[in-house]
Write a structure and sequence with these properties.
By secondary structure, this protein is of the alpha/beta class. It contains 12 helices and 14 strands. The chain has 2 domains: 98 residues, Enolase-like, N-terminal domain (Enolase-like, domain 1), CATH 3.30.390.10; 252 residues, TIM Barrel (Alpha-Beta Barrel). Strands 4, 5, 6, 7, 8, 9, 10, 11 and 13 form a 9-stranded mixed sheet that branches. The relative contact order is 0.16.
Length: 381
């Protein structure tokens, strides 16, 4: 099962969005699939994929522990970790295909089927007014989702100062949350993603403002390195009946260890694209379980990461709920073939085909495009 090559596939799917994938080909004709989407970093991802391909050519694809081991001191940062994560996922896909078993069995077997999902409505909200967000939330609920998430505070960044623009963005964000809460009613959970936009003091004030809305969680309020601030915010959130969630862009068990040991979050959100792959997330989840911390993987991108995440979540004892990007583009479903990825009443059924259960459909969407004015503030990731 020697590796014959690695192909980087970067595609443009909306004016706001590129998705990136790795196809790992073996000499005996199999192809394993992983996703390495990382907004605004496509050229670096492609270069890193080429470097990895040269290093592993001719290696046995069964040697995941050696070939796809994430070392915490390795250079390359999140770009290298993302490519390595996609490579590990692709090797697991190959292992499942070789064994004739779905990927969740390669990981030890499912604890649940189906897997509960929540709808990230952020990219599907148009216009980005309170009414536009409310309409997107209603569409998700009509589609069977019992939980929705929005990221309502752009373009606020607290380091820009106490400007009129930041004050207006805060007020607009709260209006969007209020509109979504009213639109979905009390029986639907609402999550809010703050994308690290606040200072610790600003996030504390935000928690007081959000308390009347009965949120399920507040996500990523402050920079991940501010462990003391996160720990204080968790206590404030819990006192108001909500969880604190975060840590979506970290890589490796060592990065998650201080968050678990420091009591920072109720919910950790490792991403199969960045954390080091599925086996590394299982190690992160096992550590989190010892502290009573739940796992809700970050999964707001393409169909390949989604399929890997569904297999993974089925195996985690402390799994809570899985994110999915809702309403951005039908290419999420149409650019892959194999097992159906359509959501059923806010859940994802476990694929039963060998390996991941899907492959990229040909012809593919057009190649990725450079976005000189990206939708997401590049300072925030």
């Amino acid at each position: 099962m020697r590796i014959a090559g690695i192909d980087f596939r970067g595609v443009n799917v909306t004016p706001k969005t590129n998705w990136c994938f790795l196809e790992v080909r073996t000499e005996d004709g199999l192809t394993g699939l992983g996703e390495c989407t990382l907004a605004n970093q496509e050229a670096l991802l492609e270069a890193e994929a080429a470097r990895l391909a040269a290093r592993v050519a001719g290696e046995d694809a069964r040697d995941r522990n050696r070939l796809a081991r994430l070392l915490p001191h390795a250079p390359g940062g999140l770009v290298a970790a993302t490519v390595l994560s996609a490579f590990e996922c692709a090797l697991l896909d190959l292992a499942g295909q070789r064994a004739g078993e779905p990927l969740h069995r390669v990981l030890g077997g499912a604890l649940r089927d189906p897997v509960r999902l929540y709808a990230n409505i952020n990219r599907g909200a148009n216009p980005r007014t309170p009414e536009g967000f409310a309409a997107a939330a209603r569409r998700a609920v009509a589609g069977g989702f019992g939980a929705v998430k929005l990221a309502p505070f752009e373009p606020l960044v607290w380091e820009d100062g106490a400007t009129a623009g930041n004050r207006a963005a805060l007020a607009a964000g709260i209006d969007r949350i209020a509109a979504v809460r009213d639109a979905v009613g009390p029986g639907v959970e609402v999550m809010v993603d703050a994308h690290w936009r606040f200072s610790a003091g600003g996030a504390a004030a935000l928690l007081r403002d959000l308390a009347p809305f009965g949120l399920y969680w507040l996500e990523c309020p402050v920079a991940e390195a501010n462990h003391a601030g996160i720990r204080r915010l968790r206590g404030m959130a819990n006192d108001r009946g909500m969880r604190l969630a975060g840590a979506e862009t970290l890589s490796g068990l060592a990065a998650y260890r201080p968050l678990v040991e420091g009591g920072c979050y109720d919910v950790l959100m490792p991403d199969a694209k960045h954390a080091g792959g599925l086996e590394e997330i299982r190690r992160i989840a096992a550590l989190a379980q010892t502290a009573g911390v739940e796992i809700a993987p970050h999964n707001p991108t393409g169909p390949v990461c989604h399929a890997h995440s569904v297999h993974l979540c089925a195996t985690l004892p402390n799994f809570l709920i899985l994110e999915v990007q809702f309403g951005e583009t039908e290419l999420f479903f149409d650019m892959v073939e194999g097992e159906a990825l359509r959501f059923g009443e806010g859940t994802a059924a476990l694929p039963g085909a060998p390996g991941l259960g899907i492959r990229l459909r040909r012809p593919m969407p057009p190649p990725w495009v450079r976005m000189d004015r990206p939708w997401l503030d590049p300072r925030l990731g």
